[in-house]
User: What shape does this take?
Amino acid sequence: MRQKRKIYFFFSNVIDSAIYRSLILEFASEEDELFCVFIGEKSLPLFNYSKTLPIISRHILRASKIQIVQLIAVYIFQLAISRPKIVFCFGQTASIVGLTSSALSCKAQRFYLRMHTSMNKVEGFPRGILYDKLSNFLAQVIVVPNKNTKNYLVDQENVDADKLVEINFGFHLREYELSGSPRVHIFREQYDIPENSFVIGIASRFTHFKGLQYSLPALTNFLDKNPQGILVMAVTGEEVPPELDRLIKNISRIQLRMAPRGCDMPAFYNSLNVFIHTPIDETVESFGLVYVESFAAEVATIVTLSGIAKDICVDGENCLVVDFCNTIEIENSLDKLFIDKNLRSKLAEKARQSVSHLTMTKMRHEYRQLLAPPNKF
Assistant: This one.
């Protein structure tokens, strides 16, 4: 019997998602011996999922600068003994620990998934920029989720294009087909959304590169003109910056609903008439899961072209595209979709077709092919 191939996955501060679960499940197989290392509090739910599978996993709650150095030392020793064939890293801290320790201890092929583009530069994180350079240097293969990230790494970070492999994120698209489902009724009831209301949705972090400082004023003006309008914001639990807090408070409490990002997201999308996602430039989104999620749920969507939107969004065909940082265009697009029900229906139908290729099965197959022995890298 052939000896099982040893693979190490390192995760840091990643939110539990179907994408990561599918990748873990794909390599928790009879032919592979998978070891998963989870770093950070946010990774705990994914760690708990891993414990339901026949793999070896470990969770490290925190990783300060000193602890990162300690972890590197620990895994230099462990990888030297274990001698894995592949080390694959997801998240910045995970990449520093996994790539550094494997480069110094074994002959494993070193991979990492680049999950951001210009965020560290836009947010002004010099340490993050340094970590990016180190990860780019240590990795033998960098997986990117779309052409946008690939072009950014080549043009802005001088990464050798031969190092880059593009694999789109995958989705369980049928999970977003909830027309007539009781889940939608339950969601609307839970957040007190009247049946005759015009519902607009935002799913976003409270950070300036998501463009909320431009979409919220447009929404305020629209809701003032249209009392039947409701805004539902599915947001993470992070602290709201003062600028955005002031903008949110300008919206009538009667017309605003706040839901956690961990709510029933397919039901959230299926409760909407319009979804808005308007990042501030073409590079700040590495992928942009919400573009695909709203398209899969057949929602008329207002977007700026960032991340995967550059590949799937066509103005007037499957969405309405607005310029970056343009409140007036966002409001005008809202007015247009509010008035024209036929346009909303047309865009929604085409949107679903535009993401039909982004399946979880396809993504898992492409990762399996990438890591299949013997590996071309």
